[in-house]
Amino acid sequence: MEPQDQTTGAEPIKANVQCVGCGYNLLGLSADGVCPECGTPLEESLRGYLLVHRSGGHVARLKRGVSFIVAGLLFWVAVQIIGIVVALITVIVVVRSPNTQPPALLESLVTTGSVIDLAVSAVILFGWWLFTARDPADPVRDRDANVRRGVRSAVIAQIALQLISLVLVPITMSGGTIPMPGSNPQASPLFVITSTINFLAGLGVMAAVVVQFVAGMLYVRRLALRLPDARVHRLARNRMISCPIWMTIGSFIFIGPVIALLLYWNLLNMVRKNLNRILKEQAAGQMGGTAGEIAAL
Q: Which of 131, 120, 139 is nearest to 73 (CA)?
């Protein structure tokens, strides 16, 4: 059947929404028209696409996931601030006493920091796992399959590589001496091997973090169409650029990573508030959002 002319003055649909009746892609069609394949009113498909019209259990799972993420990010911000303070104190101590070499204390600090980092990462990554759960009520197919798989694959990679690093840290610290200012110790073969593996694992974690961040922001942009929230949709694109800048270039002023984490937290907290609003609307029997809102995003 040939698509009909749907010039009615309504906003064209700007998302890849499938017709609930036949699965036809409604992208570009007028929001107040009908499906050119089966005649189902497009508003039914658009309303079905909004999360407020989906399972309350699924929305609650998404909210629980993003709540884990925002809580973990806040804790991570606190850890980053403490880390900056500890680093400054360490620099002052080394400058004043360049021959000081406290291997036991250094090993304890590195191991403790690795455990805390892994624990916070686990909370955040578990949150992303819940937050990217597939919508069981999708009438046709998993629209967000690629970005969801990207996030979840990166989550698994980060957990595995961080566990490897956690195991190797005490082995590395006890396998040889660490070069310090004013000394020239010889590193043992065990130290060299474990340090190399740890370094490669660190690179792997960094790569997984990049994949997870990009895929996560793409997922948030798509989810914003279902809230619907035009500001979240816009900010997710902006954060995809600004957060890496603050995390890398901004690190030269020390607080850059903290600013990046706060921007990241702010966006996801907006999503959490939207999901909480949707749950309240569902509980009250309200059907928030219009077809025009989703079409205009």
A: 120
Which pair of tokens denotes residue 164? 């490897």
Measured at the CA of 223, the angle between CA 222 and CA 227, to 5 degrees, comes to 130
Query: Tokens in use for 216?
Result: 């996560």
Count the residues in the chain: 297
| CA gap 62, 227 in Å, rounded | 12
Query: Residue 183 and residue 94: Cα distance in Å, rounded?
Result: 13
Which residue in the block uniquely carries the two structure tokens 């816009």? 234
| In the chain, where the domains are located | 1-49, 56-287
- Number of Cβ within 10 Å of residue 175's Cβ equals 17
pTM for this one?
A: 0.71
How far apart CA 6 and CA 112 sit, in angstroms, is 63
Contacts of 239 (CB under 8 A, 6+ apart): 217, 263, 264, 267
Work out the burial of residue 74: count CB atoms within 10 Å of its CB; fewer than 13 is exposed, 13-18 middle, 19 or more buried.
middle
Cis peptide before 228 (omega within 30 of 0): yes
What string of pLDDT tens digits covers the 297 residues of the chain?
444 444 445 678 877 777 766 678 888 888 888 889 888 788 767 776 788 888 888 999 999 999 999 999 988 888 777 766 766 776 676 666 656 555 455 556 656 666 777 788 889 999 999 999 988 766 555 667 788 899 999 999 988 888 887 777 666 666 555 454 555 555 567 777 878 888 888 899 889 999 999 999 999 998 998 898 999 999 999 999 999 999 888 878 878 888 999 999 999 999 999 999 999 998 887 655 544 554 555
Longest Cα pair distance anywhere in the chain, in angstroms? 83
Cα–chain center distance at 99:
43
Q: Kindly give the interhelix angle for 56-96 and 103-131, rounded to the nearest 10 degrees.
A: 160
Backbone angles phi, psi at 144, to 5 degrees: -100, 25
Dist CA 267 CA 259 (whole Å): 13
